[in-house]
Amino acid sequence: MSAPTHDLAVCYRIYPGLSGQPAFGLKDKLTMVRLNLETFKAALGGLKVKLWVILDNCPPAYRTLVTGLFADTDLEIIATDTKLGNEGTFLKQLEILCGQTAAELVYFAEDDYLYLPGGLETTVGFMRRHPEADFSTLYDHADYHAKYIHRQRGRAFEEGGRRWRTVASTCLTFMARRQALAETRAVFATYARKNSDLGLWLALTKTRAVNPWSILRSLGDGLFFTASHLLAWRHAGRQLLFGRRQTLWAATPALATHLDARGLAPGVDWPARVERNLRPEA
Questions:
Q1: 86: nearest Cα among 123, 65, 118, 56
Q2: What pLDDT band is residue 45 in, cutting at 50, 70 and 90?
Q3: Which of 84, 104, 128, 199 allows an S-S link to 232, with CB 3.0 to 4.6 Å?
Q4: What is the CATH number for 260?
Q5: CA torsion angle 74 44 201 225 (round to 10)
């Protein structure tokens, strides 16, 4: 296998429609994607990046935006003529990032996040200093502070004014070691067979799904949480029984947030960040 030539391999998936409850009144998807990509670029800092961008049945303006922002980046665009959808684009990311040899660290990116400057560079540094970390997320999910499933004692480090700690799950925007991703590819692929993102992470981290009390207690947080325990067993029981426990680390305060009004990461003045990027002349 050839030696890595880049610090980070990134595969983005971009879809022109809105989903969930967009934060900050962002009702135009192209505006949201511009905000996302501009802050993502600033989050890279001095990293050398190999970038793939999946444009899932996007109008031409999206290609123009991407090529303009990343003209000096090692960039490949994959444009689809028909919609692959959520599961299809995730499987494409999985295929690309497992198969690439440009970098030892890989990043799955979605089009509805907001990043802090240097955030990805900081996370790459954390992963390099802590080889025991298999996966990491820049997103301090609001659920970490509210849901039973996340009330656990784990490992933690204080670095650079942030607390990095092991968590049970995250969304589908995350960083991974290429080797850890290859080992767990089959579990991630269950997302296309109707496993939930929470379900696959519970199978990988093994922090709650092996505890019957957690299944019952999670009813108080909503059916999705209880169902995800069961989905973990249905789709990834072999991983739960025999697979290696993977470690997933999250930073507090966050280095990025999902742009969903129901789940903004606490502790950061995100409205000011949005204002700064959407109205730079102010």
A1: 56
A2: very high
A3: 199
A4: 3.90.550.10
A5: -120
